[in-house]
Amino acid sequence: MKLYSILLLIAFSLFFSAPSAAAKLEPCMTEECKAYFKGFKKAAKNGHQKANVVLGNFYYYGYGVESNPRTALTYFKKAARGKITSAQYMAGLLYVSESDFQDVEEGIEYLEKAAENNHKTAKFMLGVVYLTDEYGVKNVKKADEYLASAYESRQINVPEIIDHIRKSTEITSDTFPMLAAQINMAPMLKSEEGESKWPDDDIERITISGPSLTNMLNSQLLSMRKPIKSLGTRFKGKSCAERIECKSTTADKLDDFSSVVILPGSFGIVSR
């Protein structure tokens, strides 16, 4: 499978995830879905950054509102400014994968921010982007660095990339030194079909026994029922986030069921 195909598979399989829940977001224009959209729109206006992440997904999929990837990006960027890792990742991924407003350089910046915050799939995506020359930024050294980090984090899609690389070259201390070191420390297994795979206990899977999507949305809205109150800042040209002297309530303290994981559908639903 070409790396571009792998990227597209990843780019168009979005899921909400949580440690104990599994719920897939799909296009929906029922009155209930529209009501959820309005509820999160109100929460976002009340200062809840996590609501912007949810709205980004709603706009991307067309949940309670017409699908609009460009508007989805706007909401992910709003949440990314609030230092929400999943939003940084989503903004980066859309910039890399959406042809209508593709900006690889901008996408890499967002993905790097998410990777710095230990987002496993952001590390994986950076490895993929730097591994191929289709985006004009091919850099084997950087690909090695990010894929090694994704390997160490046991990111779910790494085995597929390992097999892809091995079709054209050996993974050695000369070709991919950091990745080779990780493989030597913790070798993968082989499936019956001869494909690389993680040992089952290394993969954190989410079962279908978790709360439904509506239960999760209701829970999230309940946590956002009160407006965020900021003390503001008297320093011109500086936001509260840029000054340690300024204190404000942030959405980072909320439970984050809305962290988005983007994975090939064939892998099922997993946590990031």
TrEMBL record:
InterPro entries: Sel1-like, Sel1_AlgK, TPR-like_helical_dom_sf
Leader sequence segment: 1-22
Gene3D superfamilies: Tetratricopeptide repeat domain (1.25.40.10)
Claim: Signal is one of the keywords in the record: yes
Source superkingdom: Bacteria
Keywords associated with the record: Signal
One family name in Pfam for this protein: Sel1
Example GO biological process: ERAD pathway
Protein name: Tetratricopeptide repeat protein
Organism of derivation: Brumicola blandensis
